[in-house]
Amino acid sequence: MSEEISKTPTEDTSKILNHRPDPIKLEEFINRIKNEKTFPQTMNNVLLERYLKISFNNVENAFALLKSGLEMRAKASYLFTDRDVMSSEIQTACTTFQFVPLPKITKDRYKVTIIRFPKCDSNLYDSVQVIKAALMMFDACYTIYDYGDDGFVEGEIFVLDVEGYSFKQFLDLGKNAKTLLFYTSFLQEGAPVTLIRNHICNTSTILDSIMSMVKPILSKAVSDVVHVHRYGNGLLEFIDRDVLPSDYGGFEKSIDELYEDWLKVFKSKRDYLINDNHWKLSEQ
């Protein structure tokens, strides 16, 4: 990622972070978008706030990051069109992986999202549809304040639990390595996310193969914050116990229960997600 659209907070900027972006800067950002005729004019306001928030109220940085994301979506339109939450493809994908934004944030005001692969019929697993569903879930998250009705977190922690990931699923992912690499690049270069840490737990030799595919395109900022744990309870060293699900030694509900709660929110965003006009660039 270029320095101009870096999402990594510095020591100075971290001292002036607020839960919401500056309203004057937000108005300037929205006007900047309105004047860009190729940009969609129906983007969600919470989404725009999020872009500005992680850019530390720098309008040009927020605009550059948003533009990068929209252009990347155009280049991989097969992942960003026909996105019906209730379609059979997405519904099946949602049974082969779990994307769970945890309801509580850490003491440092970080949000934790766990992605895991429960045991399933590997014949149903389609890595492209899983990645598509995951990107839809990210988009759903972007339109919701992180806590309360008006708050954003100061960064995000991602946990990848690969305990149930089978060799057959890995072979399917390998066939679609290009999509996996795009997904990794998009989260680094086009998404309104400030990454704090990546945790990978319940590791196996399959994980080593996956990492060998994505490691070459990981930025140094991302690779430096990857932590690998042989077991799930290794997360307790880094994440508050009252934030983590009971499956990982925490005090929250089980990951299955939390996933069911999240799916209800996800399905409520159907009309938003199915409308391509929210992120489709127009031609001049």
UniProtKB/TrEMBL annotation:
InterPro entries: CRAL-TRIO_dom, CRAL-TRIO_dom_sf, CRAL/TRIO_N_dom_sf. Residues 99-256 form the CRAL-TRIO domain. Transmembrane segments: none annotated. SUPFAM superfamilies: CRAL/TRIO domain, CRAL/TRIO N-terminal domain. It holds the Pfam family CRAL_TRIO. PROSITE patterns: CRAL_TRIO. GO terms for molecular function: phosphatidylinositol bisphosphate binding. GO terms for cellular component: membrane. This is CRAL-TRIO domain-containing protein.
